[in-house]
Amino acid sequence: MKAGGAKVAASTGEIRRLELEFDDNLLLADLFGSHHGNLARIERALDVTLNARGNHVVVSGDPQAVAAARKVLDDLYLRLRRRLPVGPEEVAAALRMATHDGPKPDATEQVIHTRKRLITPRTPNQAAYIQAIDDYELVIGLGPAGTGKTYLAVAKAVERLVRGEVDRIVLSRPAVEAGEQLGFLPGTMREKVDPYLRPLYDALHDMLPPNQVARRLESGEIEIAPLAFMRGRTLANAFVILDEAQNTTAVQMKMFLTRLGENARMVVTGDLTQVDLPRGTRSGLRDAIDVLSGIEGVGVMTFTERDVVRHPLVGRIVRAYDQAESRRRSSAPYESTDGTDRDRDA
Length: 346
Known about the structure:
The strands form 3 sheets. This protein has a 6-stranded parallel beta sheet with strand order 10-9-11-12-8-13, with helices on both faces. 38% of the residues are buried. The protein has 11 helices and 13 strands. The N and C termini lie far apart (61 Å). By secondary structure, the protein is of the alpha/beta class. Helix 2 (37-46) packs parallel to helix 4 (88-98), helix 5 crosses helix 6 (149-163) and helix 6 (149-163) packs across helix 7 (189-207).
């Protein structure tokens, strides 16, 4: 039988030993990795044994681990057949997909095309997030830093702009706690707000050549602006992203969401554990989740530390802070610093 292009030979029942045959020898060097480094990573992660000879790989171990290893090798082989890169990050992503408890999406089916690179989801939640952006007019992405909330949203925005499906991209985020404070900084208004918007510039430069970023910013095809500049506008034929939305007030969030015009898509991202609003001020992001729950056309995607795709230590840091916060809340439920318990006083 076939498995993503690999032929499989195995006995029936619980499979503790599986032999895979790959039909394109030219792809095997990249599949196995330098000095079989990719195979070694899979062995360590799943506690299986992989023996490669020619275009055959024999997988041995616990039946569930063997099935997961097969899924990983299948996914990586499909990537190579579709001319997508395979390296340590892609191996780690395939392992996350294969060991996910729920449905195991095919990440190679959700490729985001930008001018500089092809981007695929690295966790099942990222795959669901990309699908939600295609399916809903408004998507709210919640979760800790490093989960790809903003990066994937910008990637989808760039893809749609390049394809001509939207006329422009509008990227926004709250600049500071109170806009009046900008006046005390030196320089023009753009020089004052640019440091707060730098993560959005970085994402754009990762997906478009520098000359295209500059040209599209100059022409207005791409607009990066603080939230305060959104009032009174109607954003039609646009892909609109609000980043760091946990630092909006309820009034600001309503103002932003009602900017949505015809043939527009909107993505709102934020982390409710990093609210910087004054104590007692209800986060506009939390308010939006409560108000818009169940509304047609709105999708909500929640990421966890398992979706962190930065350095592995970042995931452990997020988990440690979550555990510490849980302990604090259990001992003093109204002393939370994450902006959630403070809402009870708002």
